[in-house]
Design brief:
Largest sheet of chain B: 7 strands, mixed
Distance between the termini of chain B: 35 Å
Strand content of chain A: over 45%
Shape of chain A: globular
Largest sheet of chain A: 6 strands, mixed
Oligomer: heterodimer
Helix content of chain B: under 10%
Number of strands of chain A: 12
Order of helices and strands of chain A: EEEEEEEEEEEE
Structural class of chain B: mainly beta
Shape of chain B: globular
Chain lengths: ~120, ~120
């Protein structure tokens, strides 16, 4: 069965410091991996994805994520955090093949707080 | 740029009442889905559709009904509301059901439902 784990409910970093939001996944086939961000009282917004190719993918707002197949991880990173990055971040996975093509599975979310 | 439009934004129901959450998208997306978001649970897929006339169940379909008579609309019906259905509901759509763009969902702003 497909699943996503975000081991940290909260991540706190100082502005200007690098940030990492962790994600591990489990799928039966090839993973399609995604990161989304949610600001208060808003819908989710797509940040970036990994389908195939380079393990380091770049997305919106200076975020990037590193796919590690051996560790089944897809951690979200940013070299220098901004206060405006404070939000709820979701990792998501779908199976690249098989009978569950239509399903995107989300993690529980990680609340990122960047303090000035 | 309407994108994905959900109505109503807020609704209070009594146990046993029925209602329909409306979702419309103007991007000609073939894939549409409904999620519910609960604290500490992330987003859970209720139902999804890969095109007009085609729907399928997600992770938590019980108590909900959907139909897809047009490409644009994907209403979610609560047949007999229960307090356990108190949640924030999100409709999301995607251009492609398969392929490398699959999973890049566009979300509505959400509908907050309270069942008393």
């Amino acid at each position: 069965a497909q699943s996503v784990a975000q081991p940290e409910d909260q991540v706190n970093v100082a502005e200007g410091n690098p940030l990492t939001v962790k994600c591990t996944y489990s799928v039966s086939g090839n993973p399609y991996l995604f990161w989304y961000v949610q600001y208060p009282n808003r819908g989710l917004q797509f940040l970036l994805k990994y389908i195939t190719g380079d393990n380091l993918v770049k997305g919106s707002y200076g975020f990037e994520a590193e796919f590690n197949k051996s560790q089944t991880s897809f951690h979200l990173k940013k070299p220098s955090a901004l206060v405006s990055d404070s939000a709820l971040y979701f990792c998501a996975v779908r199976d690249g093949g098989g009978s569950t093509l239509g399903r995107l599975y989300f993690g529980r979310g990680t609340q990122l707080t960047v303090w000035p | 740029n309407a994108g994905v439009t959900q109505t109503p934004k807020f609704q209070v129901l009594k146990t046993g009442q029925s209602m329909t959450l409306q979702c419309a998208q103007d991007m000609n997306h073939e894939y549409m889905s409904w999620y519910r978001q609960d604290p500490g649970m992330g987003l859970r897929l209720i139902h999804y559709s890969v095109g007009a006339g085609i729907t399928d169940q997600g992770e938590v379909p019980n108590g909900y009904n959907v139909s897809r008579s047009t490409t644009e609309d994907f209403p979610l019906r609560l047949l007999s509301a229960a307090p356990s259905q108190t949640s924030v509901y999100f409709c999301a759509s995607s251009y492609s059901f398969t392929g490398t763009s699959a999973g890049e969902l566009f979300f509505g702003e959400g509908s907050r439902l309270t069942v008393l």
